[in-house]
Amino acid sequence: MEHVSEKKFPVDPKDYKLYEEIGDGVSATVYRALCIPYNEVVAIKILDLEKCNNDLDGIRHEVKTMSLINHPNLLNAHCSFTSDMSLWVVMPYFFGGSCLHIMKYAHLEGFEEPVIATLLREVLKALVYLHGQGHIDRDVKAGNILIDANGAVKLADFGVSACMFDIGERQRSRNSFVGTPCWFITYPFSFLIAYLMLLLEWFDLYWYVEDILGSFWDLFPPSRADIWSFGITALELAHGHAPFSKHPPMKSFKEMVAACLVKDPKKRPSSEKLLKHNFFKNGRTNEYLARTILDGLAPLGERFRELKVIV
Ligand SMILES: Nc1ncnc2c1ncn2[C@@H]1O[C@H](COP(=O)(O)OP(=O)(O)OP(=O)(O)O)[C@@H](O)[C@H]1O
């Protein structure tokens, strides 16, 4: 398990110097920046809160979740704070940027299978951890798989992840705002199950019926929504875009994707089971990733600028 830095990052914009833009999303822009007191390069995501149709407390909670979660394949925020009408999320800087970005820049036909197996294996490890902690990511996609200069893979943006036990308005408001169409499918039963779990806990019955609940949970596992997105992401990485094919994929790749894209959520494998799939035996080391897909890449800001001109 990765060491969690005890370092306290400053929560004042004056302590950061913004450099160039390295990415943008629907309501946020990401910059490379310098944390002046530590003389350390970081990435800062600045969310325009006026553009987010979610409540501020909700977003704060999500960022907090992001900073509490600790796994080598999950992106940990250093800190976050609000300034005027924007939210600043300070994160480690990843030289490679996202897989989507790398593909658009240098691998238009998608990655080769050993690369895909390595990337997806690392993402799956993150999902096994998240699901084990009672979270669903809800936004697994190539744009959220980041790579650092050493080829280490991190799943980002699980700040939009939902707790499987979240209920009420909060869950409803999330449904209107999070996830990316095509990668994410709504999971209608999670709401009901969350209520049931809470009722049992209130009446102190939870532990007595844990076994029964365990099998009930197996019948309607909300985490299987991530398995669907994971399958779509596999296709995205193979062909540079989701979900059409140009090259015939390997048998084990096809089988793995087919297992994820089963319509009935309860027939999809859990993240833990999926990790044991034969396809991931093709996975290699982080160094292999760095050598294969990062070597020779221009700095992220330069790549981002070039791609923006093309778009
Ligand atoms: N810590 C980071 N280091 C390096 N690059 C990053 C970092 N965080 C984000 N990026 C880059 O910025 C891009 C935009 O990130 P962001 O999380 O805002 O958007 P997104 O998830 O791709 O989009 P959307 O808002 O549509 O979900 C990423 O795809 C990635 O290329």
TrEMBL record:
Chain sites annotated for binding ATP: 45
Residue stretches making up the Protein kinase domain: 16-280
Transmembrane spans: 182-207
Domain of life according to the entry: Eukaryota
Assigned keywords, A-Z: ATP-binding, Membrane, Nucleotide-binding, Transmembrane, Transmembrane helix
GO molecular function: ATP binding; protein kinase activity; protein serine/threonine kinase activator activity
Pfam families linked to this entry: Pkinase
Family (UniProt): Belongs to the protein kinase superfamily. STE Ser/Thr protein kinase family. STE20 subfamily.
Name under which the protein is recorded: Protein kinase domain-containing protein
